[in-house]
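Let us begin with a simple case.
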Amino acid sequence: NLQLTETAEHAAAAIAKIRTGTFTPTLFGGIGVILLRAVVCAALTLMLSCFATSWLFTVTVSLMMILAGQLVPIARSVWQGPPGSAMGTPFHLAILLRLVTVFLPDMQLFNVVDDIAVGISVGSDIFLRVAGLGAGYIAIYLLVGYLFFAWREL
């Protein structure tokens, strides 16, 4: 016994509001960021496969590196925290944090998609920054993979 009490004009206005908020340029930018994240993960896996001897090692280590990449901002905040806060960090932990922030991809950069999903408008400058950093990750991982492969084949 569902009764529709809305008029056709109200329903048409609600449908038009949904349509205007659905297919926006930020949605397509978000799809591009998801694709860029996948390509960064693939480039990282390709780099690892150039020196790994088994596929199980390659898949496991790349998965661990991608998961650890989600924690890079935390490691960076501990490493580059306020001047007085790093005094309590042991030397070996500080070195580990520096290595993590240098060699692992910062996968939190690609979480701009979460803002798009809830309807927040994201500027094109943010998309360009994420695309530039993603392209940098891809270029470095492919270059290092090529160097590993060329060194291994000699």
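The second case is a distinct protein. As before, the sequence precedes its structure tokens.
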Amino acid sequence: GKVLDLKSQGTVTMPTGSLLQTVQTGAFSRLTITSTGSWVSTGNTLAITPSSTSSKVLISITQPIAVAGSTPMRGGLRLLRNGVVVWNTDGFQEHIQVRNADNEHHAVVTIVHLDSPSSSSAVTYTLYAYLLTGTHFYAFESSKGAAMLLQEIQG
């Protein structure tokens, strides 16, 4: 078998759907929300620079969360790209909801979203959290399994 060096061939266009690059979050801290009514950055944030305006970005997020207080306990998540909501665009605030129970309840949220940023400049994705009812909303840190993976896909 011979090896084909694509870089020596000049400009190469990969087929639509090809994976072009992957980036993953580093370490970040836990977020604790104790006030209701505001969207707050979880710290689960990551940037990628697409090679073309036609590229797509596949976003995969794992975020351990918890709500605490007395019933009902409710909270939500949403994803922003450069300050614009791209996932949970209607502001739904009850991704975790607990009724008829007290104390603290945990879940692991997985989000997979295909975005079309239409940019060849750096784009930053940030996960936000919201406490609707209860006393605390926790978005756990990277050492507890929270992560974001961004993959540029040829458009």
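Residues 58 and 108 are 19 Å apart (CA to CA). The mean pLDDT is 93.
Keep these points in mind for the review questions at the end of the chapter.
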